[in-house]
Design goal:
The structure holds 2 protein chains of 2 kinds.
Chain A lengths: L1 E10 L2 E11 L4 E5 L6 H8 L7 E6 L2 E2 L5 H10 E4 L11 H12 L4 H14 L15 H12 L6 E5 L7 H18 L2 E5 L3 H7 L2 E6 L2 E6 L1 H6 L3 H7 L10
Parallel strand pairs in A: 3-8, 3-9, 6-7, 7-8
Antiparallel strand pairs in A: 1-2, 1-4, 4-5, 9-10
Chain B lengths: L2 H36 L5 H11 L4 H26 L6 H39 L2 H7 L4 H40 L3 H4 L7 H27 L4 H35 L2
Chain lengths: ~250, ~260
């Protein structure tokens, strides 16, 4: 289980998170939603030590991890993988080298052994045949699949997806949704998904948490969110330009 | 306290606190880089690649600049000498000493700061704003070890090499102008009698110090980049200004220490 407890975070004078508390249960698919700049990605990056809170606590499996050192966070990052918004594959490395990097760095595997394992992960996402291509040779949807393969290299218990379907065509987006579903059913992985994609949210989520003005506005099942009469929630999930929501 | 007084205090305190934080961050990055090097966490192939980018790619830029500088220096000095005592026997010797001690390492340092410092800040800054540095951290690849260590080793080695190339180019250009403009023979110009081991050590120390400082200062600018392409642009400008300033300050400090401690 993951617990964010009263997290505050500001960048200069701009407060992004203003006391966010949120629990993530083991094995669930939690979607974190909110308008652009609401602090969704900022919140999840605290879990893996890419950002540190101004105040508050983060617990993983009952242990506080808020103030671990960068070195200590490497163990957390073996449990919690992240698929970044723009895939962030390294342009100078082939696809298989990108996926092999965590094996080489976390386990100090030799290049040949790391490549073998990386090929198996690329197989999982249907990208083995393109293993020796460069990221520049493939489209965004395929890059996303490779980024997911890289995130799965260490068989993590938790995977954070930062806007996994943004910028993808509907077919590629559906394939990513299927991957998230199959991760849960096949391996029991807990997924935290930051997204704006309503079709994906209501098609995949076990639970939805919405951040608005630095706080959690609603935290519930898709049915509970749909049933909400809050005008801000109604405006956001129905995609209306006019309403009480401050952007 | 009145609001005017607190505004004045805040106006004075904010830049001081900012400068203190920057200095502390930079010192930490220097320490991290040197600790990684000391622990042998060096990717040899990447060091060679960076040596090519920092060194080989800078040769034409440094060679032309130093040749022109050598040519102008000899012409100006010889013109002055001609007006006072038209004796050029020590022209080459004084020129060599000036080049080795001061101009070759420092002008080469400024050239490398401009060309290489901006490149490092832009490359690392782009990696930061596109989250590639975060992806490295997620893969257990320390950004300092992965990005800064190879660039720092490469720049330190290649600064020494480029300084030697600069001295050779400046000397050849100076020799040619001395011969053609002032009738000084090559043999008279190539006079090393004022050069001693202290001059070589001073020039070498400066080149090495610039080579170590430029990548770390530029890397810090890149690693602290925020806010998309505008942030990368700011980081690049900041890197060029900070590395150029660092070269000038290091030149002053190393020359001063050399004078106070060794008397030269």
């Amino acid at each position: 289980m993951i617990r964010f407890i009263d997290i505050h975070k500001a960048f200069g004078a701009r407060t992004v998170l203003d006391g966010v508390s949120l629990d993530v249960d083991t094995g669930e698919v939690l979607y974190i939603v909110g308008n652009s700049g609401a602090g969704k990605s900022v919140l999840v990056k605290h879990l893996i030590g890419l950002l540190r809170p101004d105040s508050g606590r983060i617990e993983l499996g009952g242990k506080e991890i808020t103030w671990l050192t960068e070195h200590e966070f490497y163990a957390v990052r073996m449990q919690c993988a992240m698929v970044f918004q723009n895939s962030t594959l390294f342009d100078a490395m082939t696809l298989v080298e990108n996926v092999a990097l965590p094996y080489r760095k976390h386990f100090a595997l030799k290049p040949a052994a790391a490549r073998e394992r990386a090929l198996a992960k690329l197989d999982l996402v249907g990208m083995r045949s393109a293993a020796d291509w460069l990221p520049g040779d493939i489209g965004d949807g395929l890059k996303k699949r490779v980024a997911i393969a890289r995130a799965l290299t260490l068989d993590p218990s938790y995977v954070i997806f930062d806007e996994p379907t943004t910028g993808l065509d509907p077919l590629a987006a559906a394939q990513v949704d299927d991957l998230i579903r199959s991760l849960k059913h096949d391996t029991g992985v807990t997924s935290i998904v930051v997204s704006h994609d309503l079709r994906s949210i209501f098609g995949v989520a076990d639970r939805i948490a919405m951040i608005y003005q630095g706080k959690i506005l609603i935290d519930g099942t898709p049915a509970e969110v749909r049933a909400s009469r809050d005008p801000i929630i109604d405006q956001f999930f129905n995609g209306r330009a006019d309403g009480p929501m401050k952007i | 306290m009145t609001s005017a007084a607190s505004r004045v205090l805040a106006g004075v305190g904010r830049p001081v606190v900012g400068a203190w934080r920057e200095a502390r961050g930079l010192a930490g990055l220097f320490l991290d880089t040197f600790v990684a090097v000391a622990r042998g966490r060096v990717r040899g192939r990447e060091v060679v690649h960076q040596m090519y980018l920092v060194g080989n790619k800078s040769v034409p830029f440094v060679a032309i600049t130093l040749a022109v500088l050598g040519l102008i220096s000899v012409f100006q000095v010889a013109t002055q000498i001609k007006q006072v005592i038209p004796d050029f026997t020590m022209l080459g010797a004084a020129f060599m000493q000036m080049m080795v001690r001061e101009f070759a390492p420092t002008i080469t340092g400024l050239m490398v700061a401009t060309r290489v410092g901006s490149g490092i800040a832009a490359e690392i800054g782009s990696m930061v704003v596109t989250e590639q540095v975060d992806a490295l951290r997620m893969s257990n690849a320390d950004p300092v070890e992965y990005l800064l260590v190879p660039r720092t080793i490469a720049a330190a080695v290649m600064m020494l090499m480029l300084t030697i190339v600069g001295i050779i180019c400046a000397t050849i250009a100076g020799m040619l102008i001395a011969r053609s403009g002032f009738d000084v023979s090559f043999k008279t110009f190539l006079n090393f009698q004022l050069l001693d081991a202290g001059d070589l050590a001073l020039g070498g120390t400066k080149a090495l110090a610039y080579g170590l400082a430029i990548p770390v200062i530029a890397g810090r600018a890149g690693l602290t980049a925020r806010g998309g392409s505008a942030g990368v642009g700011r980081a690049t400008t900041q890197a060029v200004v900070a590395t150029s300033f660092a070269v000038i300050v290091l030149d002053f400090v190393i020359s001063g220490v050399s004078y106070v401690v060794f008397g030269q």
